[in-house]
Design a protein that fits this description.
mainly alpha, Ribonuclease iii, N-terminal Endonuclease Domain, Chain A, Double Stranded RNA Binding Domain, 3-stranded antiparallel sheet, elongated
Length: 226
Amino acid sequence: MKADLNALQQRIGYTFRDIELLTTALTHSSYANERKGTACNERMEFLGDAVLGLIAANHLYHSDRRDEGALSKRRAEVVCSEALASYARTLELGPCLRLGRGEEMGGGAERTSNLENAFEAVVAAIYLDGGMDAAKSFALPFLEKELAARRQAHFKDHKTLLQEIIQQNPGERVDYVLVGEKGPDHDKKFIVEVHLHSNVIGRGVGHTKKEAEQQAAREALRLMGF
């Protein structure tokens, strides 16, 4: 177990002063139930959930200009069960879990709930051992990567995302205006502006009008900080 913890600390990028905190973070209740006096990671899950939520909320508050509803949705996306379990798999937490005999035989090392709980507990262990800065240094790269992946997926349709943002302010709408064409017929390019009221908020060029509109929306999103 010691060798496993040493390798895990390398993957985590943090060396514990109190290694027992990490051991407890990896201890499932089924293991503790079989060994009287052994602490499980359930209390750490509770703390880690709160620490992760604060790290995510603070990051989104300073990096995303949308309203409270949108921020809450994005925070929920990066700390959901599926996301947390994926972070745990990246760190290979499963093989490090201390599980009861039945839980282990039942595939507990790969169970999503066990993995997400273990990741939360590891966050708590780092927080207890090294404070918020250490916990943030560990957790934030996972959250940023997940946010970037989800942002890229949303941006496949820039027009839809821009429309969703604009609709948060009742009465506002955007219009796409073809302002020019250039190039020969076999390689023609269209120039489109996206207007918010009478203001130009983005400009795009594409081989089709739809492509130009998407590029205009993309530029508008970039200028808006998204």
